[in-house]
Specification:
Number of domains: 2
Distance between the termini: 48 Å
Helix content: 55-70%
Radius of gyration: 24 Å
Number of strands: 6
Strand content: under 5%
Strand order of the largest sheet: 1-4
Order of helices and strands: HEHHHHHHHHEHEHEEHHHHHHHE
Structural class: mainly alpha
Oligomer: single chain
Length: about 400
């Protein structure tokens, strides 16, 4: 064995191998821990699932039940003081730099494990190896790195150990709830950091995920790349995975004259798509018509006002609510379309009511919207009658 290990690699080769190894770890986190275990969006063949469990034991020391419990608690308590890692509550700096510590604190909470850890592996290997001796795995990884790569080994191991704490615990949990673009007005602060999920396997598309948590596919727009989904499709083609659920998609059935149960189901199930369309087709054009003085003034004003108009009321702080009231006071038309958005939101939030009652409410909403004389709102209400769910294709 040489100074550079059994494989006798060069510096550049060691760097490429490190990137490949960390990418496998990212794939294990996003496919196995996140989409399969935490959200049950897909089933994995036992061989694939066990490979991911073994690899995560070697490269992260994370226990499946602990990771799943912390993540489910995050969704259940998002942006509240009980959220394990919200930058809206704790501050971006703390989550970005201390994300692994915050994860560890939540994983040590017995109540979190009991309440949110159901359905995770509980076999002999999990109880006696992966769960009990989880730090021995990363120690074995260090030995293997040194044997295979010599003097590069400790550095490669350090990068492997820091990869998930930095990218997942820090960047996704921190920046992914603080800065970026939003396709959907989910009731939290989640954002998409970039539309090309390469370094973190698609997890950068965090707003899409919070809009549709149980979807195995995180990309939503044609330009968004979800590498994890590409791997899932490959595993599915090979018979090594079965996708259970992807985000619903809306279609408009032309010429449909009435709101029926199919329309109601589409609005309830695909609420995020409905409100995204309302923002694009009603709030944005009405804001542009009512608020713009000239082209130079228009773009920034419309963007800011539309963001406020589209945001759920409970996500508005005092200053934002005051700005919203100032915007609405400038235009009765804008105030009207905002009120109709709030009424549509209220229909969705009344899911406990009977289907007949919800259907009557939605029919009345469309009837009144079409009578406002506001063209953008009238067109939306007319199209809403034809809303239907696209057949699921996985």
């Amino acid at each position: 064995m040489t100074l550079y290990g059994i494989l006798d690699v060069s510096l550049w080769q060691a760097a490429l191998v490190t990137l490949a190894l960390t990418h496998v770890t990212i794939a294990a986190v996003t496919i196995y821990l996140h989409r399969s275990q935490a959200h049950r969006a897909l089933d994995l063949h036992p061989v694939v699932a066990h490979f991911f469990r073994f690899w995560l034991w070697l490269t992260t020391g994370m226990v499946t039940r602990e990771w799943v419990s912390v993540h489910r608690r995050h969704h259940a308590r998002c942006e509240t003081p009980d959220d394990p890692h919200s930058p809206q509550i704790l501050g971006l700096r703390k989550v970005l730099l201390e994300g692994a510590e915050l994860y560890g604190q939540a994983a040590d909470d017995t109540e979190t494990l009991t309440r949110f850890g159901h359905g995770t592996p509980d076999d002999w290997l999990e109880r006696n190896l992966y769960g009990r001796l989880h730090w021995q795995g990363v120690g074995l990884m260090l030995i293997l790195d040194v044997l295979l790569f010599g003097v590069y080994g400790p550095v490669m191991w350090a990068v492997q150990m820091l990869w998930i704490p930095f990218w997942a615990a820090g960047v996704i949990n921190g920046v992914g709830h603080y800065w970026g673009y939003r396709n959907y007005e989910s009731p939290d602060a989640s954002t998409n950091i970039v539309p090309w999920g390469i370094l973190i396997g698609g997890e950068e598309l965090h707003n899409n995920h919070h809009a549709f948590p149980s979807s195995a596919k995180l990309s939503s727009k044609p330009w968004e790349l979800d590498v994890g989904w590409l791997y899932i499709r490959l595993l599915s083609t090979l018979g090594l995975a079965r996708v259970k659920k992807v985000a619903p998609d809306l279609r408009v059935v032309p010429g449909k004259p009435l709101v029926d149960m199919d329309t109601l189901r589409a609005v309830v199930v695909s609420r995020m798509h409905v409100f995204a369309r309302y923002t694009k087709e009603v709030l944005a054009p009405v804001s542009r018509d009512e608020l713009c003085r000239d082209a130079a003034h228009c773009r920034r004003l419309v963007r800011r006002s539309t963001q406020l108009l589209a945001r759920e009321g409970k996500r508005l702080d005092g200053a934002a609510r005051e700005r919203l009231e100032q915007i609405l006071a400038q235009s009765q038309t804008l105030a009207t379309v905002y009120q109709f958005r709030e009424r549509l939101q209220a229909i969705w939030e009344s899911r406990a009511a009977s289907q007949d009652a919800l259907l009557r409410s939605l029919q009345e909403w469309c009837h009144q919207a079409e009578a406002t004389g506001i063209q953008a709102l009238e067109r939306f209400a007319h199209n809403l009658k034809g809303f239907s769910l696209e057949p699921t294709r996985v």
